[in-house]
Amino acid sequence: MELRRNPTRAVRVGSCTIGGGQPIAVQSMTATHTQNIDATVAQVLDLQNAGADVIRIAVDSPKDAAALKEIRAQVTANLSVDLQENYRLAELVAPYVDKIRYNPGHLYHHERSKPWQEKVAYIAKVAVDNDCALRVGVNCGSVDPAKKAEDYGGDENGPMLASAIEHCDYLDSIGFTRYVVSLKDSDPQNVILVNKQFAQSRPEIPLHLGVTEAGLPPDGIIKTRIAFEQLISQGIGDTIRVSLTVPNNRKHEEIEAGRRIIADIAAGRVRSFVDFGLKTMNIISCPSCSRVENEAFIDLAQQVKEMTTYAQDHKITIAVMGCRVNGPGETDDADLGLWCGPNHVNLKKGPVELGHFKYDEILPRLKAELDQIIAQKSVAS
Ligand code: SF4
After folding, report:
1. Which domain does 90 fall in, by range?
2. Are residues 242 and 312 in the same domain?
3. Strands of 282-285's sheet, edge to edge?
4. Does the model's pTM come out above 0.85?
């Protein structure tokens, strides 16, 4: 399945273009001490070899910025930097990177009497002068206090969303459009909600997706997957990062996990119910994990795909899940749902359970139910 993307602006970050119909860019960041130049260069190369499109380096001080200059001289990767509280570091890092991230919630720390607009205008000018893109990175844990003080009628994401939109409006008003936006939270459901809200209100702005503090694999990957499945399937998200708690020598796993999640979504291998908005048959099957109790599940998913080819033109969703833990819940919204146990496959039509069947009995039963749905739909239309 080709992943439909929202028609966002193209934002160039070095040799990579984010948005504008390009494939989703996968990012990671170094976790070494930036002033340890050899270790940081080695990690950049490791991430680049794993296929990273953009690599972020932590720079918190002028000494880190000096190290960045050395690192830049030794690597060709597209680099980005996250400005922490000292926004004035922008001019020290910009000559050596392709993208700068600033957090609207951090701008008030320095030069408190200066309006944030002046600070953003300064960052944008530094970006223009140094051929850099920007990321407006809003984080649930550090939302602009001025926005938090406003009333959003109980909408938990209101301050984050308002802060992002305010900065987009301002950047646009000064003629700077080479930016992407991120709205991150540690709760995947909030990530889904706030990014959907943003994409609805500013569909032309490329989004960088991520779940913060996702944690150790495999749980960290699952959390991230849940959010990305619901967003990427809807055309939302132009670049991603999977943030994992892994030792330095395993940081490339972030890139591998990101690429795997994108490939799985494109193939319909999803662990939650995903509506791809198709007008034809939508078969989703979970990507499988250690919870699978019978390897026959993998073959079954393939057989379901083949058996249902005759019904391809019908808008029907069939979900095939690998285990009894997540299967029952994750198939609720499908027209037909299957989930696999050690010896039997459970079948559900919408929310109604139809019983469990042996692996060699399930396909004919599924076909009978599918035929019935097709017949009902044709009578109804
Ligand atoms: S449905 Fe079960 S087997 Fe499949 S990925 Fe989810 S937990 Fe793992």
Report:
1. 11-266
2. no
3. 282-285, 317-321, 336-340, 344-349, 352-358
4. yes
